[in-house]
Each structure stands twice: as C-alpha cells, then as structure tokens.
Amino acid sequence: MSKAMVCSCEDVTVDDVKHAVSRGFCDVESVKRYTGFGTGICQGKSCLAAVASLLEREKALKPAAVVPFTPRPPLYPTELRLLASAPVDMSVPPVGGVPQEVDAFPSSLRPEGPVPEKAKVVIIGGGIMGLALAYNLACEGETDVVVLERGYLCAGASGRNGGGVRMQWGTPALVELAKRSIDLMKSFARDLGINVWLRQGGYIFLAKTKPVADRLDRNAALHNKFGVPTRIISADEAREIVPGLTMKDCLTASYNPEDGVIFPWPFLWGYAQGCKKKGVRVETYTDVTGFETSNGQVRKVKTTRGDIACDTVVLAAGAWSPEIARLVDVQLPNEPHRHEILSTEPLKPFLGPLVSVLDTGLYFSQSMRGEIVGGMGDPLEPVGLNMGSTLRFVTRFAQALMEQLPQVGHVKVLRQWAGCYDVTPDNNPVLGRTPGLDNLLQMSGFVGHGFMMAPAVAERMAKWMATGESDELFTRFSLRRFSEGTLEREDMIIG
Predict the structure, then answer these.
(1) Helices marked H in 287-328 — which ranges?
(2) Which CATH number fits the domain that encloses residue 478?
(3) pLDDT attached to residue 439
(4) Is 354 within the bounds of a domain?
C-alpha cells in the first residue's frame, strides 16, 4: 500500500507523503513543496483530496488544519503564444492578483505550547538567511538559538525564487560573496545530507542598449580580477550556447560558465534539518508582535506564543524586516517589491545556462525536470507586500520570452507565483549592528539575491558573532551608511 500512487503527474506515492510527515512537513502546502505533488499538469485537481485525507489519517494534523494549498492561476494550462496575445493594458500599474492575502495561515496550524522562555540568540525569519545563520552559529558552538518563522518553511522569498546562483555582480564585495557561496553549495549534499541539484550551466546576460553593454564590459573585467571566468561573447557565440536564441536587438552578451541554478526548497530544508540536528529550535507559525527594551538593548522578543528573553536578536525577515523593525522604532530603508515568476510543462532538456536580458529584467532557465522557469520585473510595480499573481505578468513574460526564444510558443504554462524583492536604495544589503540598539543585528535588504548570498554571508556573520573578530562586511553594509551617505550602488540587479 505504501507504494500506491497519490500523484501520477509527479510520481508521488503514499510512502513519499509519509516520509514528508516524518520530516516535520505536516500541512498540505509544506507537503506539496517537499514532494512536488500537485505541481504537474493537473495542478492538484486529482491528488489534493487524497493527500489531505492521508494527512488526516496519519494524524499529522487535526482535521481543521488539513486545508488546501493556495490556488494559483492559470487554472487551465495555456500556451505561451496565447498568453502573449492577451488584451492587457501595459500602461496601467499592476494591482491585486490571486492570491492577495499573504497572512492567511490557519490558526489550527500553529504549534501548541509556548516558545522557549529564553535563548542566547533569537533569529527573526526562517528563510534561507535566518536558517543558514542559525546553522553556522551551531557550527561555531552556539546552539542556544531560536529561529522564529511566521508561516511554514519556504513561505517567503526563499521558496518563491527561480534558483539562480551567479558570480556576475558589479561590486567586489558581492562577487566575492557569490563565489564563496557557490563553493559552499558544491559541498552542501555532503555536509547537510540533502541534494540541492546544483547545475552549473552558466549565466548569459544580454544587453540591448549601449549603457548596459558598457556595464557588462566593465563588470567582466572586475570578475576576471577575482578569478571568475566571465567573458564577453558575440551574438553568434550566444546562439551556439543556446540553440534557437534570436539575440533580437541585442548588442552584446556576457557569459560565465560557472554560474548556475539550484533547487530552492531542499536548500532551505537542508539548513533547517541541520539546525534541528544541532539542537537549534525552529519555531514555525510564530509571529513577532513586539519587543521589550531597556538601556539600549533588546531584552525580550514578544510573540504570539509567548515572550523570549535573549542576549542577541537578528532581524532576517526579508521584505517583512521593515515592519518588524518599526515595532522597536527602527526605520529601515528597505521596500518590498513584488516579482512574479512562472513554470511551464517539461520539455526535453535543451537550455544549459540561465539567460537574462538585463535591460528588461527578463530571465529564464530550464529545470532538471525540463520546465522553463522564468520571471520578469515590472517597472510600474508599486511598493507593497503583495504576492498575488496577475495575467499582466504572464503576458509581458510570454511576449519577451518569445522574442528571444520563439520556438517555445507552443509550451503550456502550468503555474505562476510571486515573491517580494527586499529593495534598498543602493541595491546592497543591510548588515551589522543597529544604531541605538547594539544587540539588534540586521540581516536583510538583499534585493532578490539573498538566496544565493546566504551561505557566505551566514558563514561570516556567525563567525563575527561568535568570536567578536572585526569583519568589514558588517561596517561596509551597516545601517549607518544611509545617514552618512557612504553608499556603493550595485548595478547587476535582474528586474
């Protein structure tokens, strides 16, 4: 019976669901992400009820907590060429979307009992940054750590990105961090015991305008200084690397064969499981509601499940960091911007690198299973914590993708979703101590690239916290730079 099929689209069995439950993934949304059920052509219509029933039967959750995962349009798989022709007014800023609510976590999913009364370190945010930091702190010998996550693991940006990891950046600090991160990803399966499917097929950046072309030239020279083998390639060379690429209106391209793509979800789970093995507490469905402070120190973190007395607090909540910081009267310059993404039905593998048109924010790659996965920034997107999905996005994306890769017009889109970039004025992160609250540490503002920077940033931050040794990373990117005007702008942001 354990081998009985639950989801025929993705070959998920009863045994697979039980294994997910044994790993602590008990609600329907988390099990979907862990096993992949409901992500195939039927979009869960033939398997959702079976998984929900199995969870109830396994007593993984109370019946009231067995809720459907969030529906995401399109309801019916539709070809890219049809979506490209949808009548959408591109002059009007995008609004709304499905779903619009980002806080709809059923109360029945929340753990019973209080959080620990005290901990040496409390990390707010159970995304890739918070979990990677907690794991690295444990490796440094500090295991009295509690990680607070407002929803399920992968609910935020860490579970909503395209998985791209690259060394092609515009400032020395980010080039070095990205290079170190990719080195750590190579050993992740050995060190954390979970395969993240790192595939170093490279990144190709296309430039349509001379300013962007000059940027690629300048940055390629910078990369080479750090041992990153980026090179400027011609249109013909790009077409050789990506068969069928038109290079329409493109002046030049840069290519680094050592950039790549990984599968985001197991990357997060690996750190989470590593934390738990080392004794770190990871508390999901736990909201931070306030702080208790005195004499320039945070003394307690208040949550929906009780207060935690602590020595140090780290704010690593991504796009939610500013609203949490306001609870203690700290103003962060970060702004949340929605970025949408989609995935198609699988094709025979043909696309090695991730391709991005830097001028427009278009990017696309092919997953290990063959899906085309891609997104595109929207210059009219208003500021806000909106994770809704829109027809406007799929229309813009389909038009831009078919301009560069017309042979995929017949491919059907299976699902789309959205996440939030955590945008700062200079496109660089906010790290280090908070002026006026010395034990509140900042770890946010990564503008959509925190996922790929997390291994290296967390490694250095954990060492800095554990040893007290000086590290210029936490002064260079401190919150003080915005009042002092010492900004260093990063110019290689997709979208």
Answers:
(1) 321-325
(2) 3.50.50.60
(3) 97
(4) no
**pLDDT over 90 (residue 1):** no
Q: Tell me the range of 153-157, 192-196, 221-225 where mean pLDDT is highest.
A: 221-225
Residue 354: left (phi > 0), alpha (psi -120 to 50), or beta? beta
- The first and second tokens of residue 336, run together, are 């949340």
Reported pTM: 0.93
317 and 452 co-located in one domain: yes
Residue 9 sits in the same domain as residue 154: no
Write out pLDDT tens, residues 164-198. 999 999 999 999 999 999 999 999 999 999 989 99
- DSSP 8-state class, residue 187: T
- The answer to whether 70 and 29 are in contact (CB under 8 A) is yes
Residue 478 in domain: yes
Residues near 49 by beta carbon (within 8 Å), at least 6 away in sequence: none
What is the DSSP track for 382-447?
Answer: PBS----B-HHHHHHHHHHHHHH-GGGTTPEEEEEEEEEEEE-TTS--EEEEETTEEEEEEEE--T
Closest CA to 128 of 389, 458, 490, 435: 458
Beta-carbon contacts of residue 57 (< 8 Å; ≥ 6 apart): none
- Between CA 436 and CA 461 the distance in angstroms is 20
Q: In the numeric block, which tokens belong to residue 215? A: 């940027």
Q: Looking at the 3D structure of the chain, how many domains does it have?
A: 2
Determine, yes or no, domain membership for 224: no
pLDDT higher than 80, residue 387: yes
Domain that holds residue 36: 5-69
Residues 6+ apart with CB under 8 A from 482: 333, 425
CB 445 within 8 A of CB 421: no
Shared-domain flag, residues 10 and 154: no
Of the residues 13, 40, 69, which one is the last residue of a structural domain? Answer: 69
On whether residue 395 sits in a domain, the answer given is no
